[in-house]
Amino acid sequence: RIFSNIVPAEKAVSDTIGTMAFHESIDSGYSGAGNPGKAVKRNYNVATITVDSMNLKKLNVLKIDAEGAETEVINGAINTIKKLKPFILCEINEAGTLAPLERINVITSLGYTPYIFTRAGVAKFEKYHMFNYNILFIPNESIDYFDTMFNIKK
To answer: Cβ(99)–Cβ(128) under 8 Å?
Structure first.
């Protein structure tokens, strides 16, 4: 292992501990618990955990790519997010039961400001566009430092 502080687990992260149905799509980018949107190769159950159940002492970055289940991952990480205030890098696309802006609002309501990656660098999020999949959420208490570090105008 290259990083001794990363421990892989063959489990899905959600808002409950248990099992959930998983749909493996012929296009792996569409595999997940929700409607795969593409032809399904196979279905099976996977074990689920919550981020909160891991009892983490430190978390600098939480990366979420859950194909529409971002809210479930966040709900299972609420206590960890409030306590450790990690940067959150979250892919948000059209998949899911909540609209993209609703999922963005779930995270901003926890005291975060969203940013997007552009060809020119990092910029504050202004409006959702289907090509801005990866959104970086910075804890509000880190905004001044972050804006200075990336020369983001207010």
So the answer is: no
Contact 51, 13 (CB under 8 A): yes
pLDDT of residue 82: 97
pLDDT tens-digit profile of 56-111?
999 999 999 888 888 999 999 999 999 999 999 999 877 777 888 898 999 999 99
d(CA 87, CA 90): 10
Closest-CA residue to 61 (of 79, 76, 81, 83): 81
Q: Extract the tokens encoding 139.
A: 């804890």
Give the residue from 90, 94, 83 showing the smallest Cα distance to 107.
90
Q: How many CA atoms, within 13 angstroms, populate the side-chain half-sphere of residue 18? A: 6
Residue 86 CB burial class (10 angstroms; 0-12, 13-18, ≥19): buried
Structure tokens at 66: 């859950």
Strand ranges for 8-133 from DSSP E = 12-13, 18-25, 40-49, 61-64, 87-91, 112-118, 121-124
Tokens of 138: 């910075």
